Give the backbone structure.
Amino acid sequence: MSAQVPERYRNDFLREVEERVEEGRWVKMCMQCGVCAGSCPFGPHWEHSPQKIFMMIRAGKRAEVLGSDSMWMCTSCYNCIVRCPRKLPITHIMHGLANYAHRLGLAPKGQPTREFARLFWDNCIKQGRANELKLTLGLYFKDGLAAGIKTALAMKGIGLGMFKAKRINPMELFGGHRIKDVKGLHAIIAKAREIEDRRKGYTS
Amino acid sequence: MTARVATNESILVVGGGISGMTAALEAAECGRQVILAEKTPTLGGRTALLYRYFPKMCHPVCGLEINLRRLKANRNLRILTMAEVVRIEGARGDYTATLRIAPRYVNENCTACGACAEAVASTIPNPYNYGLDRMKAAYLPHAMAYPQRYVLDPSIAGTEEGQQARAACRYGAIDLDMKEETIALKVGAVVWATGWKPYDAAKIQPYGYGRYANVITSVEFERLADPRGPTGGAILRPSDGKPAKNVAFIQCAGSRDENHLRHCSRICCMASLKQTQYLREAYGEDARSTIYYIDIRAIDRFEDFYQKVQHDATVRFVKSKVARIAEDEKTRNPILHGVDTEGYHHYATSHDLVVLAIGMEPEVTGAQVPAEVIEDSSGFIEGAADGGIVAAGVAAAPLDVNRAVQSATAASLRAIAVVHRAAATENA
Amino acid sequence: MADMKTAAYVCSGCGIGDRIDAKQLERIAQKEGKMQLVRGHEFLCSAEGVALIREDIAKEGVTHVAIAACSRRAKTDAFAFEGVAITRANLREGVIWSQPDTEDARELTQDMADDYVRMACAELKRMKVPAGNPDRGTSKRILVVGGGLSGMTAALAAAGAGYDVVIVEKQAALGGRAAQWHRRIPYRNPYDAPVETGIAELVAAAGAHPRIKVHVNATLAQTKGAPGRFSVSVCVEGGDMVTEEVGAIVQATGFTPYDIARLPELGGGTNPNVVDQAGLERLALEAAAKGEPIRRPSDGGEVKRVVFLQCAGQRDDSGAHLPYCSGHCCLTSIKQAMYFKDASPSIDTVVMYTDLRTPGLGEDFYRAGQARGILFTKGRASSVTADGALCKVAFRDLILDEDAAIDADLVVLATGMVANSGVNIDIPEEERQKMEVKPVSVLNLAYRQGPDMPQLKYGFTDSHFICFPYETRRTGIYAAGPVRRPMDMAQAAEDATGAALKAIQAVENAGLGRAAHPRVGDLSFPTARLEGCTQCKRCTVECPFGAIDEDEKRYPLFNESRCRRCGTCMGACPVRVISFENYSVDTVGNQIKAIDMPDEFSEKPRILVLACENDAYPALDMAAMSGAMYSAFVRVIPVRCLGSVNTIWITDALNGGWDGVMLMGCKKGDDYQCHFVKGSEMAAYRMSKTDDTLKQMGLETERVATYEVAITDVARVSQLINEYVAKIQEIGMSPMKGFA
């Protein structure tokens, strides 16, 4: 423990979170009541509740916090925000932390929510619109061909239903529609990223 | 408008709870002229509705009895009940206060014999039991009520029942023609002691107060434990009248919460610790109390009491703000969901009864005082900038009884200093 | 009161006349009670009824009034006649409302009413109109002991209301401990930053006030006298003595921080970089004076990290340290952490607590601290060790549930307040002499019962009563500020103002010769027929208020204006020489003898109930109001306090053929509820000694029983009576009937 001691319970990581994580400046306002932990529908499945994450941030547990998969499980139900007696924007902080961990490459590998998020982002950015069919298939086949076929078969009833209801167009598989100025979008996103990086002091 | 004899050397005390009574008595016992105005039909306020005090487990009405005796013996004190202060004009040393006095429909002939109540059948929700039961529409508020004089509820004043009540009274005490009266008083200083009210528990949506029968507030629990209360002191569940042996106490119900009351109400931790002992007294080793808390605020020497309760095997502490309550449809047991933050353990615990340690908010906020006063971020009152109106007790800050009385005693001297200076100026 | 004229008024209203033969009561009052004037009325509390009594007082010269109507607690506005002796026979609550309204019950109900009228007449004849005590001090000056925040506030508050004040301060200047503070916790809206202490302004105001006189470098050498006439020898600079005549005293002697050297495991007393909260204030003041940041004490190094350990040596249930919480320390640590954060936000500040206690609007201050970046950790520190110039704090993190450590340049221990209350008079003198550090008295009271105020708990001189925080066991002396109870500056200022009021009240009451709380306005006072006194000292020892001293011949020396009129001395006196004008061995004794005692074969036992007038008597009234019935065999006599019950009443009752005696008083023990402190306990003790007497008389010990009855025991009190009566019926009638 001794090597770790000087790092612990210093405000360094808290400051980092305040500066670089969306709504991170709220973390210090938590009074550890635990109502967020109890309010979360995913609570029992998490390793760390928001309240515990906040305490870990204060305790300087950088690697454990950023490597935690807890933030990735937030479904944005907003129960915690509604009940938090200190009005912390907990949902936003959790997403901010996830984003930050991802940016630093510290987020847990193979975490399904994170994988989905990446898939969704790439899918969306590519043509400026979400291609639901490709996104779905990408998700089905992310663990290999056999697993993909199995999942696809299991979901076929739903797929057919959606097709009949004109919610899915099989033609989307081939190219799919796009926005007019994809290049422009890419430029916007690049600029936004640059601004964010500058503001939050990311170097990479 | 009737003018009453009062001068700028008189002190007006607004509110007849323990703080107002104290402020009034202390000044009167220093030889000052005091008018005590109370909005309801009786003095005593909220402490008269408590069963016991922490940490001594003694009875609030014992102190009330002493205060009433002091008051009965004092000639410097005039009491107006059912009187609401609606306007205060002027400045320190020279105020004119306007009071609206609601009709009681019973005059000073009343001997409190109770014949009118026997003649009346209608009932109204009993505010002295926080509406947990009903009382006759002709009533003596409670056994310790002062003045010891009946009241006719306005709902029957103009009815046949009102006539019956009048006919039943042998002493001509019932006066159905009484009208609202407005009076003006000249006073030098005002002590504002309007106290507190429990926060509206129904606003704390996840706890289901008002939806679940077995979720009640701490002030209601006091009435259940009190032998003078609706159950004769038996701690029973509202849903089925069965003994409530396994009780959850939820701290900070409304307090320390940006969505409700931002301040800490100070008394609730001690009140819950005390209430666990009611349960122990009622059910012995079979009692099960669980206190769900954020911080136990057993301040100064009250710490003893906390330590004593910690050693009580029937009481368990869980450091957690309860997230939500569900109800078991079959048993009507409230089920508490949350996480114990010490070590992070999820729970879903069933209890017979849930008591919300409800927060205190000012009965009258600074903004509602009919005069220019300074208030804090929660509406508690500091007083007028020139010091001519001073707040006392829980009107000034969330306080326990002991501190409220201390505050009222201090306020009383501040008011005396104001009228003393007013008199000095006049005589100069 | 040479010409005594008695009158009895029997009311037949509220159903009394329907249930009882009121005419018979009038006859009894006249023939047996020997009342000189007897009148009946069907609505006595009416304006007309009251006018009748007033007229008799004015025209007939009536001096003694017996009112047979409702309880003495009811209709007090109507039956208030100044300058006459009044007694009340409780026919309504005490008879008709506590008895069933049946034909069968009629005879016993009438018996009860008859006896109550006999008793009232018997009492009345022995009563005198109290004239106020002759020990009227005339000094209205107020002495304030201690010139800190509390003392100065009390002094200015009293002076502001027109009273002269003397402050005695031990140190060389006014200001007290708060003068050593850098800033104070905010005490009014907005609660978001430390504020100026305001002590310099207070010192200036107290120093300049024309009504305030100040002695510095001064202590009290002796305090003698009583409210209205205290004579205080003040030892001033150079050892000279000055005598100050004052009417009341406010003791505002403050506190001493708990010695951090007792916390060596937390580095207290050994590590220069571990300080207490007072130590940090000193550092902050010094730094502010130099216009520099606070530096590390050991080497003047820069302070980058500060850890505040809450509850250091407090809230301790092991017996090693202070068991209580000092109330202000959480807020004080937040304030002190702000000193650092406001100087430089980059300084890390951690407050380690188990329960963060920021009551009321203190929650705003807590939030403000968090917003400043002060870190709050729920944890329990086990050790602080030095590592070069750094301190290593080892602790258990209670949220993350693990052992952890933290290093800091400075550690602040939030130690508690120890009251400067002088000598603990409950510890016998001999033992005090043997103590390692001999306690020094603050007041040096020349009182029989010891030189200082009695302490409630943990050295604090607090009141025992929730409803009455200024209840004192030394009349005219009021504790204020942290000597009374741990508290912060805002509360101390409030407390001091309240104490000043009580001091003012004490001088006013003393000037009129009347009692202080709780029997305010009572003009009766104890007198002793010293020719009968055996110098047994029971009264001087047992007086709960230290009102009685002993003269050089060891006779009791009453200081009436210290007396609270409880009658404990009267109850204690074995030779019955102590009495009050309107409450004496005779006023009660005569009632006991006045009833019509049925004979041994009547199957009508008689049970005497001596009920504390504050709790048991109201409970009986309320039992009757709620319709609870109790046996018609009891006769209730209200007493000022169970402590005033003299055993002669018990023996007289038993000799007179009463079948049993019930004493009803308040709860005793640590959480006693007796407003005269020990009344109930004294009574229980005295009654425990009556067993032998009973045996000598050939009576069963059950014939005398003591009960604790609370005012809320509305249902229980009638049950108790009924059970006791059943027990007496089982034992059988007293064999003593007919001998008296």
The CA atoms of residues 193 and 390 of chain B lie 9 Å apart. Residues 199-360 of chain B form a domain with the FAD/NAD(P)-binding domain fold (CATH 3.50.50.60).
